[in-house]
Amino acid sequence: MSDLCIISFPGSDYPPINLQPHQNLSEYLTIKNSPVLFGCRTGICGTCLVEVIGDIPAAKADEKEMLDTLAPNVENARLACQIDVTANVEIRRLENSKDNSYNKV
Ligand code: FES
Fold it and tell me: Which class is domain 5-93?
């Protein structure tokens, strides 16, 4: 499949980015072109926690475990560094609030 996937960031000032399918978001998203922040890039720190709307493969077991801990009540929560981009997606960053729950930024 050669169609580009459009990565958009609703609610932010960042313009959408076009990527080839199966690109790793952590290699293409930076603080200059997206609201998403990265730390470990290997799925263990939780810095890249986001809400994702789009038809992409479900989280694998390790990512699911992290999501259950970090954002158990957020539907569509994902770790941006672990996403396999296969379709257009909308991404919103989630931020840890004082009561230790995550909120949309
Ligand atoms: S950057 Fe650490 S979990 Fe994604």
Answer: alpha beta
Q: Strands 49-54, 5-8: parallel, antiparallel or unpaired by DSSP?
A: unpaired
Task: Give me the amino acid identity at 82.
Answer: Q
Give domain limits for the chain: 5-93
Q: What confidence tens digit (pLDDT) does each residue in 60-102 have?
A: 999 999 999 999 999 899 999 999 999 999 999 997 655 556 6
- The position carrying tokens 């922040």 is 37
DSSP state of 24: B
CA distance 31 to 76: 22
Site to probe by mutation for ligand 1, drawn from 24, 27, 44 as the one with most ligand atoms within 8 Å of Cβ, is 44
- Ligand 1 pocket: which of 29, 40, 50 to mutate (most atoms <8 Å of CB)? 40
Residue 5, ligand 1, Cβ within 6 A: no
